[in-house]
Amino acid sequence: MTAPDSTSLPPLARPGGDRAAEERLTPDLVETLKTDAATRVLVIAGDAAPMAAPDRLDWRAPSETPDGGEWAFLGRDADGAALLAAVFAAQEEELFTAPAGWAGLRTAGALLSAADAGAFVEALSLGRWLLDAPYCPACGSLTILGDAGWSRRCPNCGRQHFPRTDPAVIVAITSADDPDQLLLGSNALWGPERFSCFAGFVEAGESLEAAVRREVAEESGIEVGRVTYRGSQAWPYPRSLMVGFLAEARDDAAARADGEEIAAVRWFTRDEIGRALGGDGEVVLPGRASIAHRLISDWHAERT
User: What is the per-residue pLDDT across 197-256, written as a single tens digit (0 to 9) for each?
Assistant: First the structure.
């Protein structure tokens, strides 16, 4: 598989700041950095962050950050200042008033700079693990944070635990007969007007390529031939790494929804996709922050 160049990466896959992973072993790093006036903090509540503007995060000083969150070291910015995350569960009321309000990653991700987008997805991905996995999965004991928020150690059984990343494939299906048609599906949990690519988790002992063929067959009835890698992105809902592909159908007529996860499948013409990407018409496509949007928009652009 050949990766696309960095100019065509999905918004949440662009290289962000320096994670400075070697610093995580520094004892009491987070507590020390909290006392540094140059340190900047990204607050996360649920899946939302405070915004300084629609396209810019509202970074806070440690002294401006509410108490009670889980803290972690994110790395350093281009000027060398330390970046921390302070993570909170979803709140009924905003933790504080942000200049441009609070926004989720799905909404703001495509608008942010590479540095801000990278920090947001890093903080949200790590933060979900910090909040959701405080206990040892082996013995149930409360664990102790280490490595500046990047590991947990069990004081009872001694095991060390790290943030999980669950690989998933996401696939747009091209036609065997017509280069200007793309197959998309509508999830049973969505409205009938919303369509996207086919996706699913990679199972134990399964390659990415095998997962593509299995998921596509299960959800759409399509057996695929050529499979082309198109890129990847972190997607912290809850902890996925989405690996994107185009796959070519062997028989267009075999397309059918599984009737459980997928309520409908439909072949779209390139013109229909173009209108939907422009917000014209009744079909709703994935938001710009998602790799699904990039798979669809890149396919549309290839012949226009």
Answer: 999 999 999 999 999 999 999 999 999 999 999 999 999 998 999 999 999 999 999 999
Q: Residue 153 contacts by C-beta under 8 Å, 6 or more apart in sequence?
A: 143, 144, 146, 159, 160, 161
In terms of domains, do 14 and 100 share one? Answer: yes
Which residue, 132, 149, 183, sits at the end of a domain? 132
**pLDDT tens figures, 84-101:** 999 999 999 999 999 999
| Count of CA atoms in the C-beta half-sphere (13 A) of 118 | 17
d(CA 163, CA 234): 13
**Number of domains present in the structure of the chain:** 2
Residues 188, 88, single domain; the answer is: no
48 vs 87: CA distance, rounded Å: 10
Can you tell me the distance from the alpha carbon of 73 to that of 24, in angstroms, rounded to the nearest whole number?
7
* Amino acid, single-letter form, for residue 231: G
Judge contact between 119 and 76, C-beta under 8 A.
no
> Mean pLDDT score of the chain, rounded to an integer?
94
Alpha-carbon gap, residue 120 to 110, rounded angstroms = 11
Same domain, 186 and 294: yes
In which region does residue 289 sit, left (phi positive, over 0), alpha (psi from -120 to 50) or beta (all else)?
alpha
- Specify whether the CB–CB gap between 65 and 249 falls below 8 A: no
**How far apart, in Å, are the Cα atoms of 8 and each of 3, 130, 192, 275, 278?**
10, 31, 30, 21, 19
Query: Do 63 and 115 sit in the same domain of this protein?
Result: yes
Per DSSP, helices labelled H in 13-157 are 29-34, 105-108, 114-132
The pairing of strands 166-174 and 181-187 is: antiparallel
Q: Domain of 39?
A: 6-132
Q: Are residues 124 and 173 in the same domain?
A: no
The CATH number assigned to the domain holding 200 equals 3.90.79.10
Cβ atoms of 40 and 77 closer than 8 Å: yes
Question: What is the reported pTM?
Answer: 0.91
